[in-house]
Amino acid sequence: MGEVDPAFIQALEHRPKPHSIEAQNIPLIDLSPLIKHPDSLSGLVVEIGDACQNWGFFQVINHGVPSKCRQKVESAARKFFALPKEEKRKVSRDEGNPFGYYDSEHTKNVRDWKEVFDFAVQNPIIIPASHEPADMEMKELFNKWPESLPELREACDEHTAEMEKLAFKLLELIALSLGLPKDRLNGFFKDQTSRVRLNYYPPCPAPHLTLGVGRHKDTGVLTILAQDNVAGLEVKRKTDGQWILVKPTPDAYIINVGDIFQVWSNDKYESVEHRVVVNSEKERFSIPYFLYPSHYTWVEPLEELINEQNPARFKRYNWGKFRATRNYGNLKKLNVENIQISHFRI
Ligand SMILES: O=C(O)CCC(=O)C(=O)O
């Protein structure tokens, strides 16, 4: 067993099991009907709705994202994380700006075994200057790109444009699966605050004690994840709470609904906990795209989905302030639970 800094060590109950359950994978959905039969999507819509309800997670194939574009961003990410630390630290995240490189993120107050590089999809993005509810000041945030690796920005821009197209296709299919008009949710994204992360998980000498990312739920609308061919993502199965390892499917993207969909759907589509296990031999890379609405969005159960029998289960909350509060908590590493949608439960 190798030595690791105690900051990385998970409490006993959160440590990964020596043998993850691989038997049943999350649903695999073929998106080719979007191209082949755009006028008869009912089968696809049912598949997506079932996956959102039963798992909160699914993988998609035939999604229309060119493999070349994905290979290019994966290769640029590998080059970035292979740079010397001093070079990566030239684009470090700082107190005022959460975008850029960071190697000491904590999830639930335990350090993750990873390095990340974050950027916003729109540049600059506008978000509240502080988490204080009464403070109405806004600020602009700009991305930071490494000067010594111009291909990183180019590859990320191309891949992000593809992620955006896929995100809106999925958003429309999920809206249909909830019985809504397909463009019902599109208006929330005019000034979207979506972001992308490059994750790098180095080999770990004590993978049974640590996690690449601790257990968490995604706060946004939906997440599209590209993982390489090294397994690591584990999803908490809704039926029995077991951690299920998601087997990599070449060229597929993994989709999950986030907290905002849980609130919009009034608990029909739950945001599901997930985490990342690491291993002692292989490094692993992944690229999540987090679809977020504009900062001025008030998140609440959609009026078409509530009625007297199924009243709203959440109070509304402001997305910009929610994110600002979460960022503040992460930065200060407060020894209290981070802001969660459960705090808005009625
Ligand atoms: O690397 C993965 O498979 C998942 C990453 C993740 O959950 C995150 O970055 O929030």
TrEMBL record:
Arranged from A to Z, the UniProt key words for this protein are:
Iron, Metal-binding, Oxidoreductase
Under what name is this protein listed?
Answer: Fe2OG dioxygenase domain-containing protein
Q: Where is the Fe2OG dioxygenase domain?
A: 192-293
Please name the PROSITE patterns in this protein's record: FE2OG_OXY
Similarity section: Belongs to the iron/ascorbate-dependent oxidoreductase family.
Which InterPro entries does the protein's record reference?
DIOX_N, IPNS-like_FE2OG_OXY, IPNS-like_sf, Oxoglu/Fe-dep_dioxygenase_dom
Coiled coil start-end: none
